[in-house]
Every structure is written in structure tokens, then in C-alpha cells.
Specification:
Blueprint: H1 13-20, E1 25-26, H2 29-35, E2 41-46, H3 58-69, E3 73-78, H4 100-114, E4 126-129, H5 131-134, H6 139-145, H7 152-156, H8 159-165, H9 171-174, H10 176-191, E5 193-199, H11 203-217, E6 222-226, E7 239-240, E8 243-244, H12 254-262, H13 269-276, H14 281-288, H15 295-311, H16 313-327, E9 340-343, H17 345-349, E10 352-353, H18 354-360, H19 367-375, E11 379-381, E12 384-385, E13 392-393, E14 402-407, E15 411-417
Parallel strand pairs: 2-3, 2-5, 3-4, 5-6, 9-15
Antiparallel strand pairs: 1-6, 7-8, 10-13, 11-12, 11-14, 14-15
Helix pairs in contact: 10-11, 12-15, 12-16, 13-14, 13-15, 15-16, 18-19
């Protein structure tokens, strides 16, 4: 049997996950390996509190990609019902509650993004919203039929609840584990789903769903969790100078997305190639073995492949072209993928201090930050270091009606002076 991407399913996807570093915990390694030798329906839940995924969702998304490639059927569950409650897992305070209308709109955007990674045609993958069944529950029936199977003492021992007890856990959040466990049972009953995957902060919720299904149906279903990723420097995955790294090209451009990956620390390149690309492991090991200046080649591969998966080959080609222009001998910034800031030509004619332009274009958040950056030697104009923070930028600095600013080693902005 072959998956949607033509990869034979004889090799257990669990082996692929372990080779690539996806597995943190698994309910029973032997049983899960045996289960995955045949076609399986699996699911991962996604939070619909924004119109775009961010890089923190990439690991579970890539897990669904591998499952589909191995001939399994992924279900992406949009947590429209649970978002009305708020998941305390991994949080020190209650999540904001959003409206059902916002959840539906966000869910449609998220499905469009997921469709770049997995194939939803002909039932090869499904997206469902747990609001469709959770909002129809009768509270008294739910307490009697579902709530009686949960031990409060056991629930309080879960890490997600223990951490919140110190800052305050309200009753609506306390119900979250029951609702997610109900999801797993519902998906088993209606879709034959036997595997739930998620971040390691979901381990307690996943076990609760497996235990509920065992009690209600006498069936064994399984869970697998992923490690919670940080970079080698301890920074949470997907954090940039502008905030989160979004998968929506309107929120994070393909060029910025490419730059995030090419600027990863040398120590992270091999791990991120394994997790966030579909390259064969033999090729990844070869790239991981590159040393010195050659590591740039591995970073280019990581950036291109990650951008291609998220935004398509054309956008990845453009981002790579822009990056090579900016970091090569030609620093003209001619590519359309380079971030652009447009301003009146009159501003340049009258002369503009460099620190003000750095702030206005968005390369620095404040003028104070811009002054410090330039004073410390981190500001560049057309490839040349700016000598003073108040150096006046004039028409003679324009090249083809534009300027190329650089902040530090990696961040560029093309300034286009209009009429």
C-alpha cells in the first residue's frame, strides 16, 4: 500500500519518527509499532485561536505528513469546542476565550494552510471541529456517563494541572481533560481512530482518552508525544525579532521565513533537517557532517526545503535568490522577495538621519534602539558601515532610486524612494 506521497508503508512510521527525533513518550512501543504496520487513523488537535499556525505547530504538522506518506489517515481536529473552555496545558494563566464565529473563521484559514502539507482529497485526510459534538453534550448525562470514570486525585497529579494550581485553576479549565478524553473516544467510535499524537504537555490528556476508551469500549488505543522544542541556545522554537514565526505569508513573508531557518545555530541544523524537511536521513547525515564554512550549504538546504514545504517551490526559489544576493558580493537587493519600505523621495532630498530611517522602516522598534545599534557598529547602508547614528542619508546615497539598510548580520530592508 502507498500513501498520498507514494511512500511504501512496509516500514513502520514509528521507526521514521524515532530516527528523526519526533518521539518523547509512547504508550507501548511494541503495540504501537505493531499497530502502525497496517493503515491507521490518527489525530492531532490544533488550537484555533489565531488565523495562522506558527512554527510551534510545525512538529505536529510534519508528523501528520509522515503518517500520510506511510499510508495512514490523519485527522486534524480543530478545537472549536475546547477553545471555548481553554486548555491549561503549558500555560501559567487562563487562555482568552474567543467567540464561535472567530473559531470558525480561524479554522477555515488553518485548513487552507494544512492543505499545503497534507492531501485532504478523497478522504485521505480529514479536518473536523470538536465543537460539532462537544457543544451538543447534555451536562448531566456527561457527568453521569463520562465524569464518573475520572479520579480527581489522578487528574491533579497531571503536570498541566499541577503547574496551574500555584497560580489558580478554575473549574472551566478543570473540565478540559474530560473534554479531550471524550474527543479521543468520539474519534475512535466514529472514525476508527486508534492513535493520538501531540506535544509532551498533552501526555496526561492523551492517557485520559485512552483510559476512557478502555473503560467504555474495552479497546486499547494509543498515544505518542513529541518533545517540546527549543533551539540550542534555549530559545523557544519560532521566536524572531518581530515575534512569532507564522506560516501565513501575509504575517511572515517567505523571505523572512527562509531567513529564520538559514540563520539557525550550527548545532541545530542536523536536528532541524530531520524534523522539518522530508530529505532522506542519509542525505541529512551528509549535510550534518559538513564543517566550517561549508555548514552554510546545509543551512541553505534547510531553509529552502522548509520554505518549499510551507510556501511552495516558487516562493522558496525567490527567497533563496534574495538571500544569495544579499549575502553575496552583489548587495543591491534587487530581488522582489527582499522586504521593502516605501517612502516619499522628498524625505531623502531634505536629508534624513540614519537612526530615524532605521526606526521608520521597522528594522528597529524605537529610535533609541536604532541609535544604539548604529553606535555599536551594527548599522549598514548599501553594504557600508554607518559611521554615526545621526549620519544624514541624502540623494547621493540612492542607487536606482533605492537604499539597502542592514541591521546586524542578517536583517535587511530595501528603501524605495518614490516621486
Amino acid at each position: 500500500m502507498k500513501g498520498a506521497f507514494g511512500v511504501n508503508s512496509v516500514e513502520s512510521v514509528l521507526d521514521v519518527f524515532e530516527q528523526r527525533g519526533f518521539v518523547e513518550q509512547v504508550t507501548d512501543r511494541t503495540l504501537v509499532s505493531r499497530l502502525l504496520k497496517g493503515p491507521v487513523t490518527c489525530y492531532i488537535g490544533f488550537d484555533p485561536t489565531a488565523k495562522s499556525f506558527h512554527a510551534g505547530s510545525l512538529l505536529p504538522i510534519m508528523a501528520l505528513v509522515h503518517m500520510q506518506r506511510a499510508g495512514h489517515r490523519p485527522i486534524a481536529v480543530i478545537g472549536g469546542g475546547t477553545a471555548l473552555v481553554g486548555d491549561p496545558s503549558g500555560k501559567t494563566e487562563m487562555r482568552p476565550i474567543i467567540t464561535p464565529e472567530e473559531i470558525r473563521e480561524n479554522g477555515a484559514c488553518l485548513k487552507e494552510q494544512l492543505a499545503r502539507f497534507i492531501d485532504f482529497s478523497k478522504g485521505r485526510a480529514l479536518m473536523v471541529n470538536n465543537a460539532d459534538w462537544l457543544t451538543r453534550l447534555n451536562y448531566i448525562d456527561f457527568l453521569r456517563d463520562i465524569g464518573r470514570h475520572f479520579s480527581v486525585n489522578r487528574m491533579l497529579s497531571a503536570e498541566s494541572y499541577r503547574a496551574r494550581l500555584e497560580t489558580g485553576l478554575n473549574f472551566i479549565e478543570f473540565n478540559y481533560m474530560l473534554l479531550q478524553a471524550y474527543d479521543f473516544w468520539h474519534l475512535f467510535k466514529n472514525y476508527g481512530c486508534r492513535l493520538q499524537m501531540g506535544g509532551n504537555d498533552q501526555w496526561g490528556n492523551i492517557l485520559a482518552g485512552a483510559d476512557l476508551t478502555r473503560r467504555l469500549e474495552g479497546e486499547t488505543i494509543h498515544g505518542l508525544t513529541f518533545p517540546l522544542l527549543t533551539t540550542s541556545s534555549g530559545i523557544k522554537m519560532g521566536k524572531t525579532h518581530k515575534g512569532a514565526l507564522w506560516l501565513d505569508p501575509e504575517w511572515t513573508s517567505p523571505y523572512e521565513y527562509y531567513q529564520y531557518w538559514i540563520n539557525q545555530d550550527d548545532a541545530d541544523v542536523g536536528r532541524f533537517l530531520s524534523l522539518f524537511t522530508l530529505l532522506p536521513m542519509d542525505e541529512i547525515h551528509e549535510l550534518q557532517g559538513l564543517k566550517g564554512s561549508e555548514i552554510r550549504q546545509a543551512k541553505e538546504v534547510l531553509a529552502f526545503e522548509a520554505t518549499r514545504l510551507c510556501h511552495g517551490k516558487t516562493a522558496a526559489d525567490q527567497a533563496q535568490k534574495a538571500s544569495r544576493e544579499l549575502f553575496g558580493p552583489d548587495v543591491s537587493g534587487s530581488s522582489e522577495s527582499v522586504p521593502v519600505y516605501r517612502m516619499s523621495g522628498e524625505r531623502i532630498v531634505s536629508g534624513l538621519p540614519a537612526y530615524i530611517l532605521f526606526e521608520e522602516s521597522g528594522l528597529c522598534k524605537t529610535r533609541g534602539e536604532a541609535r544604539r545599534l548604529i553606535a555599536q557598529g551594527g548599522g549598514y547602508l548599501n553594504g557600508e558601515k554607518i559611521k554615526a547614528f545621526d549620519q544624514v542619508i541624502e540623494p547621493k546615497d540612492l542607487k536606482n532610486h533605492s537604499l539597502l539598510l542592514r541591521a546586524g548580520k542578517k536583517r535587511y530592508m530595501k528603501i524605495i524612494a518614490g516621486e
